[in-house]
Amino acid sequence: MELAQQFNATWGLARISHAKPNDTTYLYDSSAGSGTCVSTDSLSSYVIDTGIDITHPEFQGRASFLADYSGEDTSIDGDGHGTHVAGIIGSATWGVAKNTILFAVRVLDSSGFGETSGVLAGMQFVINDAKQRQEKGQCPSGVVANMSLGGEKLQSINDAAAAIVAAGIFLGVAAGNDATPVDYWSPSSEPSVCTVGATAANDTLIEWSNYGPLVDILAPGVDITSTFPGGRIRTYSGTSMAAPHVVGLAAYMLGLGAPLGGLCETLAAQATKGTIDENTLPKGTQNLLAFNGADASRLYGRRRIRV
């Protein structure tokens, strides 16, 4: 293991690797995200979304298209949302876990919309595919999945999300952008998933983030730069951007040997506590900001890796 230092990182990457704000470097273990799927020494991250531009150079050949349940019968990310999310999880420059394998499971169409039936089919696909890979000896460190999508509360969606978790897959989901309790939305209201709210660079909960006791952890979600189809980058805001910070962090931690069981609770225990302005936190929302556990003091006496 060796601590790497990425200079001029996005504020989100910098924030999850420092206990205090206003830094511009991302500190992380250089093995971030290794050990999980596709081969016997790698880890996989399923992105249940609009797809991924797998040709984007930032993915370095680590992204693959697996399935389309959007109804459009295409592997192309015509919206860009999924590519942006995937970049936060594991792209070379903008990603948290820079070694993870990325799998596109397309359940939303080129307008960013999807039918419940398609979303449910994509979720079941992830369960089946991960099981098959693990039976072949792949994914030795574990599997993570991201759902930066949601809608009005549906028990069928929550049950499917719970089934993903029960299958031994870490599932991070966006809390939603409705400025309401997550209790009214799916899959964010499912207690067994890891639900993520969004913060701004000034350490406040952004006013449109959903909230409440079912939000497990907070992460950067405002003005986040990441990958976009066509080899481009874009800057977006939303809990859709917060969730992949945590899913990337889950992949990062699994790559370092963290146990899969109770990983959301582990991330919450490791989080920076009390740093978000309490005046912006609705009652019952936990003051826990995602943190990768990097310690700047470890840089001294070790070789620094410039990224």
From TrEMBL:
GO molecular function, a single term: serine-type endopeptidase activity
Gene Ontology process terms (BP): proteolysis
Keywords: Hydrolase, Protease, Serine protease
Homology family: Belongs to the peptidase S8 family.
Peptidase S8/S53 domain location: 47-254
Protein name: Oryzin
Signal sequence, renumbered to the chain: none
Catalytic site positions: D49 (charge relay system), H81 (charge relay system), S240 (charge relay system)
One GO cellular component term: extracellular region
Phosphoprotein is among the record's keywords: no
PANTHER family reported for this sequence: ALKALINE PROTEASE 1-RELATED, PEPTIDASE S8
